[in-house]
């Protein structure tokens, strides 16, 4: 077998499996328990300083 065929077989099997596992792991990381405050803070970032100066993030949540 030439080098191209070997690398193609590896890419078609193991690399595809590795990329799928990475995709599933990234999805699980985003939707893990306890991540909601981080995502809520990031979602409000563009609107944070519209009317008033920025405040400490702990004061906003209370």
TrEMBL record:
It holds the Pfam family FixQ. InterPro entries: Cbb3-typ_cyt_oxidase_comp (IPR008621). The chain crosses the membrane at residues 14-31. It comes from the Bacteria. Keywords: Membrane, Transmembrane, Transmembrane helix. This is Cbb3-type cytochrome c oxidase subunit 3. It comes from Pelagovum pacificum.
């Amino acid at each position: 077998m030439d080098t191209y065929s070997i690398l193609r077989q590896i890419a078609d099997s193991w690399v595809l499996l590795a990329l799928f596992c990475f995709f599933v792991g990234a999805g699980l990381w985003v939707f893990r328990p306890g991540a909601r405050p981080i995502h809520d803070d990031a979602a409000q970032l563009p609107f944070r300083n519209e009317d008033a100066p920025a405040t400490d993030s702990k004061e906003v949540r209370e």
